[in-house]
């Protein structure tokens, strides 16, 4: 029976140290961590690895429920997958475990709260962008591709596939740039 810790932050500039220390302090022999959004399970390779290797009697430990995900369905799916393997899920803050009958109810409610919190964050973000646009401060995201370079490569005779390979982007991005009015 192993205690396996999982730590997650959403962005590369966020720090995992507090979560990792807490999981070590709780006796987790194995700890996997990643820096990826919790909005969905896409791209969360470390969580997938943990779920794949859980054995009967193991315990998946996270510091807070939102570390497992910000979508109720995703959180409940993680819990279900762990239980299908005979393992349990424990959240440290607040302390909830699926070993007890009430654990499922509490985890479901907490999962709904995490999802609601994500919706609030998105709404505040939209409001902030609208305010910034209103005063002329918001200019949008940074362009990832040099449009003039795409056009120059095309003018030099390269096709969209070759341009995409040279610039490390998709052909669709190249097509869109080439179709833009100058």
Automatic annotation (TrEMBL):
Active-site residues, Swiss-Prot/TrEMBL: 10 (o-(5'-phospho-dna)-serine intermediate)
Domain Resolvase/invertase-type recombinase catalytic: residue ranges: 2-136
Keywords: DNA integration, DNA recombination, DNA-binding
PROSITE patterns the record matches: RECOMBINASES_1 (PS00397), RECOMBINASES_2 (PS00398), RECOMBINASES_3 (PS51736)
InterPro entries from the UniProt entry: Homeodomain-like_sf, Recombinase_CS, Resolv_N, Resolvase-like_N_sf, Resolvase_HTH_dom, SSR_resolvase
Family that this chain belongs to: Belongs to the site-specific recombinase resolvase family.
Stored PANTHER family: DNA-INVERTASE FROM LAMBDOID PROPHAGE (PTHR30461), RESOLVASE HOMOLOG YNEB (PTHR30461:SF26)
Protein's UniProt name: Transposon Tn3 resolvase
Organism: Methylobacterium trifolii
Gene: tnpR_3
